[in-house]
Specification:
There is one protein chain. With 423 residues, the chain is an alpha+beta fold. The chain has a single domain, classed as Cytochrome P450 (Cytochrome p450, Orthogonal Bundle). The protein contains 19 helices and 12 strands. A 5-stranded mixed beta sheet has the order 1-2-8-5-3, with helices on both faces. A 3-stranded antiparallel beta sheet has the order 4-12-9. A two-stranded antiparallel ribbon has the order 6-7. α1 runs antiparallel to α3 and α12 packs across α15. The chain is globular, with a radius of gyration of 21 Å.
């Protein structure tokens, strides 16, 4: 299979559900391979990290879109995304990111631990009532979605009553992050953008009338004090990105992670009895089945790497999920092993666009997994989970779970990698 065929496999419906075989087919051609005219697919961990940090590679911002994808301004979803810090480069990216970064400092994230613990406990209590009554529970709907959406909505000042609205809007809007999108999917994304934009426009007006201690109020004040620091369009676009990105990736981390732990009961048993192992487990879960599988860049100048050079004008498809399974960075990469000596997932990116909410997502997962395993030692799959047909944001649409009578055998003193039967 040549590189173009392997890329076609990756973009197919089967590849979207399970991209890992296609990643290995691409890897056979090297860590950086030309899969089409000026299109380079990158599977190497070191190369992805390098390209994400190099200032000569850029995201596809408005001016670049004008050059390469005329007509993009006809889509409200694409226009909104291009006005946010997610799709801008310095100096605009730096200016916008600085206004938001104060909400995600290590001190503020640490202060949120009690909030996360309390919300996770309440959600687990609600799950326990239904599980012990013998009912199957959709883990995504009952835990993996409401936990991160509750935390990010609290940061932004979104009322509790409105939080159920955002899951559909996020699913609709994030379709534009896919490497390929149909006209029907784009229409759905545009609809979601319009609905979410209308909601946030009302929230901005409310915070202008009645300021509170939340991130929305802080950004409204930044705009009102100086429109050059944050325009009205940038204010709305960044609130959309913060809200959607603030829970969508964490929901997928929790769902993907639980599926992995249920498939590795002996490793789960070690975490159940030793919650202090959670940070290493979360890093390995991020590496093993990343909630974000890819991102893109454009080389605006020649970019050297190793003994080669990318020519200017090269499009880069950076496969984060493949980089996480690069055997040069992580030996035996298809093995789930939270006891690795070094775990360096690319799941939150690198360089100037490194995910602002990475520490918050890690905190939520580090709290959630030990809690769930302790509260529900008999937690098990209640059927085949439904995988979403998305490649960029990898996760499940439904994840039914139940309680079984007995819990799996435990050996908490033994590293998961040494436990027999752990693949």
């Amino acid at each position: 299979m040549d590189a173009a065929e392997a890329l076609a496999l990756l973009l197919s419906p089967a590849g979207r559900v399970d991209p890992y075989p296609a990643y290995e087919q691409l890897r056979e051609h090297g860590p950086v391979v030309e899969a089409g005219p000026s299109l380079f697919v990158v599977t190497g961990h070191a190369e992805i990290d390098l390209f994400l940090r190099d200032p000569r590679t850029r995201v596809l911002d408005g001016p670049l879109r004008d050059q390469f994808t005329p007509g993009w301004r006809d889509s409200p979803a694409v226009v909104s995304l291009s006005r946010s810090m997610l799709r801008t480069d310095p100096p605009d990216h730096t200016r916008m990111r600085r206004l938001v970064a104060g909400a995600f400092t290590p001190r503020r994230i640490a202060a949120l631990r009690e909030v996360v613990v309390a919300q996770a406990g309440e959600l687990a209590d609600a799950m326990a009532h239904r599980l012990r009554a013998g009912e199957p529970v959709d883990f995504l709907a009952e835990f993996a979605y409401p936990l991160p959406v509750g935390v990010i909505c609290a940061l932004l000042g979104v009322p509790v009553r409105d939080r159920p609205l955002f899951r559909r809007w996020a699913i609709d809007l994030t379709g534009v992050l896919e490497p390929e999108i149909t006209s029907e999917e784009l229409a759905v994304a545009d609809r979601g953008t319009a609905e979410l934009g209308g909601y946030l426009t009302d929230l901005i007006a409310d915070r202008r009338r009645a300021p509170t201690d939340d991130l929305t109020t802080a950004l409204v004040r930044a705009h009102d004090a100086d429109g050059d620091r944050l325009s009205a369009e940038e204010l709305l676009a960044n609130l959309m990105v913060l809200l959607v990105a603030g829970f969508e990736t964490t929901t997928n981390l929790l769902g993907n992670g639980l599926v992995t732990l249920l498939a590795h009961p002996r490793a789960a048993a070690a975490l159940r009895s030793r919650a202090e192992l959670a940070p290493a487990y979360v890093e390995e879960l991020l590496r093993y089945d990343s909630p974000v599988q890819l991102t893109t860049r454009l080389a605006v100048e020649p970019v050297p790497y190793g003994e080669s050079t990318l020519p200017a004008g090269s499009w880069l498809l950076l496969l984060l999920g493949a980089g996480n399974r690069d055997p040069r960075a992580h030996p035996e990469p298809a093995r789930f092993d939270p006891w690795r000596a070094q775990i360096q997932p690319l799941s939150f990116g690198a360089g100037p666009h490194y995910c602002l909410g990475a520490a918050l997502a890690r905190l939520e997962a580090q709290v959630a997994f030990p809690l769930l395993l302790r509260r529900f030692p008999g937690l098990a799959s209640a059927g085949v989970p439904e995988q979403r047909s998305r490649l960029t944001l990898r996760g499940y649409a439904t994840l039914p779970v139940t309680l079984r009578e007995e819990s799996p055998p435990t050996d908490p003193g033994t590293p998961a990698s040494a436990l027999p039967g752990t693949p």
